[in-house]
Amino acid sequence: MKAGSMKKVLVFVSFALLCGKVNGQYKNILLDSARTKGRFPAEPSVAVSYKTPETIVVGSAPNNVYYTNNRGLSWMKSRMRSPYGVFGNPMLLSDFKGTFYYLHLSDPDGKNWDSEIFLDRIVAQKSTDGGATWDAGASIGLNPPKDQRKPWAVSDRKGNMYVAWTEFDAYGSDAPECQSRIMFSQSANGTKFSKPKIISQQSGDCRDDDNTAMGAMPAATIDGRIFIVYANQGKIYMDRSFDGGTTWLTNDILLTNQPGGWSMNIPGIDRSNGLPLLVCDQSKGTYSGALYLVWTDDGEGDADIWFMRSFNMGDNWTTPITIHNDNSGRHQFMPAMTVDPSTGFIYIVFYDRRNYDDNRTDVYLAWSTDNGTSFKNTKISETPFVPAPDAFFGSYIGISAFNEIIVPVWTRMDNGRTSIWTSILIHRQLEGQK
Domain containing 68: what range? Predict the structure, then answer.
């Protein structure tokens, strides 16, 4: 273990045998419910190794790491450390060599989680031993006095890594001259990153609300053509580069309107969002290079999760459809999406209230084996939970898949305290096969 990069590793074991099925549903595994830096865990992200899928790494805010090398039969827990500091917004990624990356915000002053501090950069830390140890981290986007927030990353099959995020002149400022913008950087090895570029043509404000440029999410083809979506002022845009990030479109492509904007009001949640999610099929099948987009509409009455796809690099898109197969008129929200690069199958995990007329919330999985033409649904949480609007719930959940092993991770809340959960799913079991 490299000095200064992580606390002493603590054993954290959660055997699947302790989490029996309830009413035929899937076994849920508790990863964490302990308070750190004054906060209970939230905002989980996950990566299944693209080399050995029995190895899985999960991160959660503010600085938690959980990892397993036996497909979730036992887990280890540790704390992420970096010379730049760690301040939440974890994002996990595996490349096709099985190297893991843990992206997060910096914490240059080392203050506690509740402080309004200047976050000066994105940090990418690398692990080559399945999440057991991590390097000190690479700096991305340092541009004082501007704030860097909400990173997301993807890699292609050649090992190139692409990162997108939002830069604020001053996060949370109401000043009319304060602006937000979408940034991009890339790396050939995850150790040194290129000088950031502004890729959004239209800037947003700094309030971290509907008129802020937010939700930058990159996707990449096998050979490194890059696509980035983001939301701003009631619209969802896409930019793209076909030369590894050197040049981008002169004008971003408007993909769809988003009535009510990306900041959403879900009853019982302190804050939710409908930010867009973009993934690319990196399988070697017929639909390699297909783009899949998911977002959520305004949740004032009935939040719905929408999906559309493009088979020609984003030039044309199909008519949007909902991924959930209910007619309840109740909320579905906060999705996370992945494509298994070994099969091209699409998986989306999300929160769902279809079964109740109050704020009780389940976790569902939608999946498609026909490239997004249709989706099946199944409930994966054993029991519902009821969130408390005065407690921090987080902005996202996560999912990863490889070789037909699907690993969703989510936050639930009980008595105002959040906890992190997962379930290790096998595709044939979703389809009812033995």
Answer: 1-140
